[in-house]
Write a structure and sequence with these properties.
heterodimer, A: 306 residues, alpha/beta, Rossmann fold, 10 helices, B: 305 residues, 11 helices, 20% strand
Chain lengths: 306, 305
């Protein structure tokens, strides 16, 4: 048997001016791109989001590393710092943000005269939540690419965002469909925070998420290393998911390292109870770490605006 | 405020346009057109190509990072330990990790032979088929739905699997694109194993996996709970970074078998980075015991139905 090596995967390269559907969107230099794209709903997104000061996405590439956890706690921390915050849950198959705020199945999205009206948290923090989980709390709906884009369009271009200080966007795992849709629709994102865990196998995805953000022209605000060490009551430290991987990836890619968040059983418990961890335990070490991240990225985006 | 109404659903275009391969309603559909689709073309080709494969099992989780790939690799190793020949089909296209987890050297290339693509033999009896064998770790390719479907078709219909006891499919997080593609193209899957972690938040998605298997008429072999309680090596206290037990409760409430807990463990992280499945390197550990028991249950399920 004569074997041959497969060198690359062929992708159709001919342009059909369906920019919203194009895998090469971020590489494209065609002058028609902006024109074609703006004509569609992107212009609506820009208008609806004009009252938001800072827009930041939380990305990871990999699943289950704590994107939603960081998004929810970052949003809560910022709200506790007196900011007006909206959180957009872009995870369409596995939206967990409503559950983490304890409003799943309890609150929904409403239609108003200026578009969809977000649900608000139960804690009086004034955090607005937009999520597919507020429309479909338990059903399985199979969503393919076009539908996913439709929902993303709806969430960016037809929501009554109002005047906000922050929009935190919780991206789903993967570096294709939903992540790209969102990055396409919000070209003026103020930055992306990448969260990862330490093992090398996790960096495969985190590296791609960071490169994708850079490809899409978004500033990478930095990398957070989650699940970094677990301290037993007796003082012994267990590195179940190892340590230091996030920091070395930040070095490799020359982006800021934003810090480590250790593992703690009460983190997942808070998520299950529907009360954000930083609200429940404001003085714990983890809450302080998350506050540091919040303050850091606020400084960065403010400097970026100047 | 006036003019308000709660958003109850998202409207989906309901008319049939005859494209079964990209239809969201595939599993709900009973139109005669679907039967034609199943009898002709790609499904037929896949079926013919997989005729040497005795059993096909899918590992899914819905949620990301619960240990699907880790479990797929070690389940495969567990099956190999029982004397089976196994191939893992990595359906993760954004960041395929199976080659690294099975110690395939970086730079190893996928080859094509007379019978199609040739899976890489990572260990005796354990083969790997993955787009990670084609792409570099720094390549960011944006895959949209049709491309993913094409890749899935290619990997199923144009790979030379040869004679295999088990084909293990590892699919990415989510319950749409890749999941539905796999279930659609392999209507004769023996069953699915759902991997989850112990928190309640994760069960929403894990439950969706069970529903989607039901919808596709594929049996649920069982639920495995990963990253469960472990014991401190210094003082023996129980430690649970993820407050647990919800996986077991979910399995009970859905009426499907619960297959066991895999404790959270540094050894697992290290074994994945080293590319040597822990079932091979630490066959007597508690972690391996659960996985080996699961692989025996899978054999029992598939071969003694």
């Amino acid at each position: 048997m004569e074997d041959r090596e497969i060198l690359k995967i062929n992708i159709m390269m001919k342009c059909d001016y369906k920019c919203e559907d194009c895998e090469k969107f971020f590489e494209c230099k065609d002058a028609m791109k902006e024109k074609m794209f703006r004509r569609r709903r992107m212009v609506g997104a820009i208008k609806k989001m004009s009252g938001i000061k800072y827009k930041v996405a939380v990305s990871a590439g990999k699943g289950g590393v704590g994107k939603s956890l960081l998004s929810v706690n970052l949003a809560t921390t910022l709200a506790m710092m007196g900011r007006r915050v909206t959180i957009l849950d872009q995870d369409l198959d596995g939206s967990t943000v409503p559950k983490m705020f304890g409003i799943q199945g309890e609150k929904g999205l409403r239609y108003g005269s200026k578009g969809l009206i977000p649900a608000t948290d139960n804690l009086g923090l004034g955090i607005d939540v937009i999520s597919l989980g507020l429309i479909y709390p338990d059903e399985v709906i199979t969503l393919f690419h076009q539908m996913r884009r439709g929902i993303t369009e709806e969430f960016v271009a037809n929501v009554d965002y109002g005047e906000r200080d922050w929009l935190i966007i919780d991206l789903p795992p993967g570096t294709s469909s939903d992540s790209c849709n969102l990055l396409q629709y919000i070209p003026d994102l103020d930055g992306t925070v990448v969260i990862t865990v330490s093992p090398k196998v996790a960096q495969l995805a985190a590296r791609k998420a960071t490169l994708l953000a850079a490809k899409a022209g978004s500033r990478v605000l930095g990398i957070v290393e989650n699940m970094s060490g677990y301290v037993c009551e007796c003082g012994a430290i267990h590195n179940f998911l190892l340590q230091g991987g996030g920091e070395s990836l930040a070095k490799e890619l020359n982006v800021p390292f934003l810090g480590r968040i250790p593992m703690d059983g009460s983190l997942s418990q808070a998520g299950d109870l529907g009360v954000p961890y930083v609200y429940k335990y404001p003085d714990s070490l983890i809450s302080k770490k998350i506050r540091e991240v919040a303050e850091n990225i606020e400084k960065m985006v403010q400097e970026g605006k100047e | 405020m006036k003019n308000e109404a709660t958003v109850k659903r998202i409207t989906v275009q309901g008319e049939c346009i005859g494209k079964c391969e990209s239809c969201e309603k595939y599993f709900d559909c009973s139109l005669p057109l679907k039967e034609t689709f199943q009898k002709k073309g790609i499904l037929r080709m896949i079926q013919a190509n997989l005729k040497g494969v005795k059993h096909k099992v899918i590992v899914l989780g819905g949620k990301g990072g619960v240990g699907k790939s880790m479990f797929a690799v070690n389940l495969a190793a567990g099956l190999v330990a029982q004397g089976k020949t196994v191939c893992i089909l990595d359906q993760v296209y954004d960041c395929p990790a199976i080659p690294m987890m099975t110690g395939v050297p970086e730079g190893a290339k996928l080859r094509i032979g007379d019978g199609g693509l040739v899976p890489y033999e990572a260990y005796p009896g354990l083969r790997v088929m993955s787009t990670g064998l084609i792409l570099k770790t720094t390549d960011v390719i944006i895959w949209y739905h049709d491309m993913k479907r094409n890749a899935t078709e290619e990997l199923l219909a144009a790979t030379d699997y040869g004679e295999l006891d088990y084909l293990i499919l590892d699919i990415p997080a989510g319950t749409s694109s890749e999941t539905v593609n796999a279930l659609k193209y392999l209507p004769d899957l023996d069953g699915g194993v759902v991997v989850t972690v112990g928190s309640e938040v994760s069960q929403n998605v894990a439950r969706k996996c069970i529903y989607i298997l039901n919808k596709a008429n594929i049996p649920v072999i069982g639920v495995v709970e990963n990253m469960s309680e472990a014991h401190c090596s210094a003082c023996g206290r129980s430690i649970a970074p993820i407050q647990g037990g919800a996986g077991k409760r979910m399995a009970e409430s859905e009426g499907v078998p619960f297959m066991g807990n895999i404790p959270v463990s540094e050894m697992i992280s290290l074994s994945l980075d080293a590319g040597l499945p822990f079932v091979m390197s630490h066959p007597d550990s508690e972690e391996s015991k659960t996985v080996i028991a699961t692989s025996k249950a899978v054999i029992d399920f598939c071969e003694n139905k």
